[in-house]
Specification:
This protein is mainly alpha-helical. The chain is built from 20 helices and eight strands.
């Protein structure tokens, strides 16, 4: 059955009869014509002659030829193990994993997100007010911290999938994270690590007249900051995957539990962000910088203790060896055989190891697909591929001949790339909102009745919107969408990603409309030069509309993206797959900075007296033009995503109870 389009409405597959696996017989290999051999290689027929030694006159594929994944293969490659790497006995499985283990992991994520957002809010002000660094360079330094901590997440994913496993990767990098936060707390506590503060009032700061930090003081601060970034990079791609590992993919209701897990996981992310934008900001304002950074360190220390306390409950997956090496082997082998054809005289078959398990540790066998046929050359088995003295033909040069499963891993990584790439634009919008909307809030009245909210707390509103939507998701959206679509989860993963991108377009378009009105109000009422003075008759709570819309966009897009990448990534590359989302976020930070630089250079004309769209005086600049530019770019990005999603084909999964192959919807 041809794979269905990813954007089609999904429905539960009809029940299938549980039948014993049947082996597909093929004619004797030596009697096949060139065309027949090509078709045999393309369709992976399995035969007795391919799997067992025959007489000398019969040619057999080296290494056993391709054997379609069986019921054993479906589960054998991903069997959960304990911390010592030993398979968990069936009798012990109910005492491990599940929701209890997942909640220990949620605690680690709450603290990590609290630290991440706490630093993103406070570090710019700390560098500006305490280290006396220019505001622009302070913002750039923090943007670099945010970008590096996300873009380098592929390092954590690589180490987890290749060598350490997800548990030990989290354990090592969460400790680094804690050390970085302790170092930042020391920087805010010890006077010798900061420049003199005497005689440095607000006017002196704006004029740049305060004593600058010495190079070694900035070196210490930046080292502590980037150690923290490294810790975040190692944790981020592993925590969600490790939490999802706690659920048995062979049990009934697995997908429903996985769907709820990723919603609760992002709820934990949101709780950490809310704490950063409220409690940490409050502590900083009333107790100082040392108390604020110390709070982040204490929270991370407590979460580390909670994570390690859950060690006896965790289920683990074996690392599968270096994924980068396997990818490189496929590319090199395909290049070396680029001129070989499936109809060539030396063609034997497409190579796969015999038996239930794949050659990739920690991975089940993966069914062959027709995408990227040039990569199939890496599994093209020719007469000369047997290593000298290999005996029964199980030893091959992995840089010349790869298994079908190994080739399919590379194909999956390539198929996945366009989806997270289309979420980069959402990260650009989120990054711009983090800075531009705060500048808007400085010109607005943030008081409602007796409540006066600090401007630095304004980013809490998207988090509150996310929290509310996630809390009500299964009581509101899912039942309604289920009635409309017939899909058991309301909408497919890619449909939810697309819905999130649509809401991001609405959010940035509304931001442009409101900014045009806000700027016109400032001009009409004489606030043109008073860009740091709140306009008492214009409420900052008009910003809640764009905040709530971007919160909805995050819920649908990023939660579905995490679930999509975990389920679609190869078994032995799930941390690398999850890192795709973090890398997209990091690229969004860098792209936002590059876009701001380009817009500033293109719109500023000092000779003609024309200010930049991003002028420091927001009432003189044209932030509304930038928002509309982002709306246009986001719309184009959404159209590209729709095209990508319509062409995407979900992975073919092999039922663990039978060899019937169905499309995962």
């Amino acid at each position: 059955m041809a794979p269905a389009s990813a954007m089609e409405l999904e429905a539960p597959p009809p029940p299938v009869a549980r039948a014993p696996a049947k082996e597909i017989k093929s004619p004797e290999v030596s009697a096949l014509s060139s065309l027949q051999r090509k078709k045999l290689g393309a369709h992976f027929m399995d035969s007795d002659e391919r799997r067992f030694p025959t007489n000398a006159g019969t040619r057999t594929p080296l290494g056993g030829g391709y054997e379609p994944p069986s019921a054993a293969a479906a589960g054998g490659g991903t069997t959960p193990v304990n911390i010592r790497g030993q398979p968990i006995a069936a009798a012990d499985l109910p005492r491990t994993g599940g929701w209890v283990a997942a909640f220990f992991i949620f605690g680690n994520e709450v603290a990590e997100r609290m630290a991440y957002f706490g630093l993103s809010v406070n570090m710019v002000i700390f560098m500006f007010k305490v280290m006396h660094r220019p505001f622009t360079s302070s913002a750039n330094a923090v943007n670099n911290f945010l970008g590096i901590s996300q873009a380098s997440s592929v390092l954590g994913g690589f180490l987890a999938d290749a060598y350490l496993g997800r548990y030990w990767t989290i354990a090592i990098f969460t400790t680094l994270y804690l050390l970085g936060l302790i170092a930042l707390t020391v920087s805010a506590t010890v006077p010798a690590l900061a420049p003199p503060q005497s005689g440095c009032d607000s006017l002196a700061m704006l004029l740049g007249a305060c004593a600058r930090a010495k190079p070694w003081q900035m070196a210490y601060l930046e080292t502590a900051l980037y150690v923290t970034a490294l810790g975040a990079a190692g944790i981020r791609p592993c925590v969600s995957s490790f939490g999802a590992d706690q659920f048995d993919e062979r049990s009934p209701g697995y997908k429903r539990r996985l769907d709820r897990f990723f919603n609760l996981f992002y709820l934990a992310v949101t709780v950490g962000a809310i704490a950063a934008f409220t409690a940490v900001v409050y502590i900083q304002m009333h107790r100082g910088w040392a108390a604020a950074f110390g709070t982040l360190a204490l929270a991370m220390g407590a979460s580390n203790a909670l994570f390690f306390a859950g060690t006896p409950l965790y289920r683990h997956r074996l690392p599968g060896g270096s994924p980068l090496t396997r990818v490189a082997q496929v590319l090199v082998a395909a290049f070396r055989k680029r001129n070989a054809g499936f109809g060539s005289g030396g063609f034997v078959g497409l190579y796969e190891v015999a038996g239930a398990k794949s050659a990739v540790r920690g991975s089940a066998k993966i069914e062959h697909t027709d995408d990227f046929p040039w990569l199939d050359k890496a599994a093209l088995q020719l007469d000369g591929d047997l290593l000298a003295g290999a005996g029964e033909g199980e030893a091959v040069d992995p840089w010349r001949l790869c298994t079908v499963t190994q080739v399919e891993e590379v194909k999956i990584l390539l198929r996945l790339l366009p989806v997270p790439a289309c979420t980069v634009m959402l990260s650009v919008v989120l990054t711009e909102f983090l800075t531009l909307s705060v500048q808007q809030a400085y010109t607005l009245n943030t008081r409602v009745a007796a409540l006066h909210l600090p401007v630095t707390c304004m980013p809490v509103f998207p988090c509150l919107a996310i929290f509310l939507i996630l809390a009500l998701y299964y009581q509101t959206f899912a039942p309604l969408a289920r009635r409309l679509t017939g899909h058991p989860h309301g909408a497919s993963q890619l449909q939810r990603v697309g819905l999130g991108l649509f809401f991001s377009v609405l959010s940035v378009a509304w931001a442009g409309v409101f900014e045009r009105y806000r700027r016109g109000y400032a001009v009409r009422h004489g606030y043109l030069a008073l860009f740091l003075t709140p306009m008492p008759d214009l409420s900052a709570y008009w910003l809640l509309i764009q905040y709530c819309l971007i919160g909805v966009a995050e819920v649908f897009c990023l939660v579905a993206l995490l679930e999509f990448l975990y389920q679609e990534a190869p078994d032995a590359m799930r941390s690398v797959g999850s890192a795709y989302a973090a890398v997209a976020g990091g690229l969004g930070c860098f792209l936002a900075s590059a876009l701001n630089t380009a817009v500033d250079a293109a719109t500023r004309d000092d000779a003609a007296g024309r200010p930049s769209w991003l002028a420091q005086n927001i009432n003189v600049g044209r932030f509304d033009y930038l928002y509309w530019l982002l709306a246009v770019l986001s719309t184009v990005n959404l159209l590209v995503f729709v095209y990508v999603a319509k062409r995407y084909k979900y992975r073919v999964r092999v039922d663990a109870q039978a060899t019937t192959v169905v499309n995962k919807q």
